[in-house]
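Can't paste images in this forum, so I'm doing it all in text. The chain is below; anyone willing to post the predicted structure tokens underneath?
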Amino acid sequence: MTNTTNEGLVFTPLYEELFYNTRYKGLSAEAKLLYSFYYKRYKLSAHVYSMGNTMYADKNGIFIVFSNEEATELLGYSNRKITNLKNELINFGLIKTKRCGLYHLKIYVQPIQTDDDNNSDNDNSSYKDDSNLDNTKRENSNNTKAEKDNANKQNMRNSKIYNKYIYTRDTKETKQEKIKINKNSSNTFEKQALESLKNKVSPILSLNAFGRISVLAQGQYEKAKWLVDTIFKAKSQIESRLLSSDRWLYSQEGNAAIRFETNNFLARGVESALLQITEIIYRQHEEIENIKGFIYVYLRKFMSSAVKKYLTQNFELSEDTIIELNELVNFKKPVQSIG
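Text version of the structure:
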């Protein structure tokens, strides 16, 4: 899984087996790098599955959603290059893919085969579609009783983390409702409320973004609603800053830059920010003094960068205009409130 340095910097490990195992001789270094990012995302999906959330698991196993556009922005390669690298990984049995809708693929990340695996009868080519999920279960259940105990402790720990730091102030009405409604009815209502919230924001936020909201909120409506409100609150602050200048207030470019529908950098920035927030909170929750403040500032930073990127990459701006733009949408508050 992704590692973090003492300075809070996140890095992704490269798996040496891909370089030393003769099985992967001929696999390009770029494909090995892409696999490392896929595997990082897979570990997060596996963790979500272990917590009882099946959003990133189906009958074929645990999968990830990692678009070509996200990979091109991350690695600096062309879309065609990413497609070729994915085909390399498919040919070497390191990933399997399945079409999901019109634009996205479900990517099933396969385990790296070691030399011991090569000498066994279980060759990678014999993997069934559901081996991804079964393999994850086997890896996490060498000792069944210990695994269950650890899972229960992990669930309790994560529950305490979120309950302690996020959304701790319930209204009187909310508390009264919790007393009146029994647990079964509450779970049903909560699922319906989440579905309703998803439908409301779906014209603006992508399903992938809402999926990450749901994971970060641990499937709880109040937390998901707070996250949605926080996204639009952060966006509204950037919008107010940008449109305080007549240069952008009366321009089509300025108004397009602050809309999810027209600024693709903005939509993808929210998705990336939510994913990184989830991982940082999971790994560094004890060091973050104010998680709610951290989430807000992190989202605002990503969206601010997306607005600047949209304007500077799509339009020819003078040096003075760029300076003004930076002054308008830059925020002095640090991204992380970590003690």
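Residues 3-113 form a domain with the Arc Repressor Mutant, subunit A fold (CATH 1.10.10). DSSP finds 16 helices and seven strands in the chain.
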